[in-house]
Amino acid sequence: MVRRKAGHSIPVVVLGGFLGSGKTTLLASLLTFYKKNGIKPAVIMNELGDVGLDEIPSQLDVPVRELLSGCICCTMKADLAGELMMLTNQQPDVILVEATGAANPLELIENVMEASMLSPVHLGAAITVVDGAGLLQLRKGSRRTYRLLEDGIRCATHLVLNKRDRLYPEEMVELQQLLRELNPHASLISTERSSVEDSWISSLTSGSGKAVTPEEVSAQNRIMPDQACDCGLDHSHDEHHEHKHEHHEHHEHHEHLMAVSYYPDQPFDSDLFEQMLRSLPDHIYRVKGLVTFSDTSSRYQIQYAFKETDFMPVMPAPEVPDVLIFIGEHFSREELLRSLAGLGGNLN
Ligand SMILES: Nc1nc2c(ncn2[C@@H]2O[C@H](COP(=O)(O)OP(=O)(O)OP(=O)(O)O)[C@@H](O)[C@H]2O)c(=O)[nH]1
């Protein structure tokens, strides 16, 4: 990759994909590559919850802006534009934007395009990371959530079919066919732990420096901007687009997905905690957190996505209180509270 010359437009790479698909894991690979190759990235991370738990290792020395408790495709659209503008002052070679797993991808791409009118940035690539097993599960589940996933696949310039280790060979074939049907034009790779080749990373920004436009993305993928937006309004020439859009987003894209933060006020018993995770309903798709157990010596970072859980010991403990963030579709806060009551803590 050629380093950006002063005064040139900075490529923005959007990292999209549904909850828990592997976006942060991919972000880590990209940052390691950039560090190794003397390329200066900057990062915008967006979380639906009110605590940012996805830490970027400090040795990578990357400017990171966190946007919490909202989504940059709608309620935090203006914040995204502001953050992009601020980061350009630091003259990075590339800006990586990690979306929430609930973001509407086409809205996000449009928002980056709109920001490019105010700042020297352009959309370099739109990556969609797909959790193959999750996609197969959601295909049989909620229509609205599945449609969000389909939109993400359609809008991508680069598709990453991740969590290959969780798929049988015949499922891999089925998923590759499905992704190709939904988006015949994007590059498509399959990965484990979002592990990508250096040449693939270079391809994200090695284009002519010309922006990918939402119209190009949607035309390539045979969807029109108005079709891609669930509300069915034709926003393309609409002066009140922003207002309608925000209203729409609030009611259509996020109301069916909700995030609940829980602050434990005492350590959990690890067996009871695991039992609680196992008994979560299918439509709680994602849990992230930092917890202390009464029967272990270290604190743990918890990652739960589609019934698969990772516990990672955290040493030394970061200066963040114990917290659990549950994200899913129309789940009952009260039921969740009841199942957590035996473990100790406060619902936020
Ligand atoms: N089995 C398996 N797990 C993976 C793979 N890639 C990532 N994970 C795990 O999946 C979980 C979610 O990964 P993240 O990278 O945090 O996913 P994300 O898309 O950033 O999640 P959100 O931002 O919360 O939507 C973590 O526990 C990862 O370690 C993979 O290829 N296989």
From TrEMBL:
<keyword id="KW-0143">Chaperone</keyword>
<dbReference type="InterPro" id="IPR051316">
    <property type="entry name" value="Zinc-reg_GTPase_activator"/>
</dbReference>
<dbReference type="Pfam" id="PF02492">
    <property type="entry name" value="cobW"/>
</dbReference>
<dbReference type="InterPro" id="IPR011629">
    <property type="entry name" value="CobW-like_C"/>
</dbReference>
<dbReference type="GO" id="GO:0005737">
    <property type="term" value="C:cytoplasm"/>
</dbReference>
<dbReference type="GO" id="GO:0016787">
    <property type="term" value="F:hydrolase activity"/>
</dbReference>
<dbReference type="InterPro" id="IPR036627">
    <property type="entry name" value="CobW-likC_sf"/>
</dbReference>
<feature type="domain" description="CobW C-terminal">
    <location>
        <begin position="257"/>
        <end position="344"/>
    </location>
</feature>
<feature type="transmembrane region" description="Helical">
    <location>
        <begin position="12"/>
        <end position="34"/>
    </location>
</feature>
<keyword id="KW-0378">Hydrolase</keyword>
<dbReference type="InterPro" id="IPR003495">
    <property type="entry name" value="CobW/HypB/UreG_nucleotide-bd"/>
</dbReference>
<dbReference type="Pfam" id="PF07683">
    <property type="entry name" value="CobW_C"/>
</dbReference>
<dbReference type="GO" id="GO:0000166">
    <property type="term" value="F:nucleotide binding"/>
</dbReference>
<keyword id="KW-1133">Transmembrane helix</keyword>
<dbReference type="InterPro" id="IPR027417">
    <property type="entry name" value="P-loop_NTPase"/>
</dbReference>
<keyword id="KW-0547">Nucleotide-binding</keyword>
<keyword id="KW-0472">Membrane</keyword>
<comment type="similarity">
    <text>Belongs to the SIMIBI class G3E GTPase family. ZNG1 subfamily.</text>
</comment>
<protein>
    <submittedName>
        <fullName>Cobalamin biosynthesis protein CobW</fullName>
    </submittedName>
</protein>
<keyword id="KW-0812">Transmembrane</keyword>
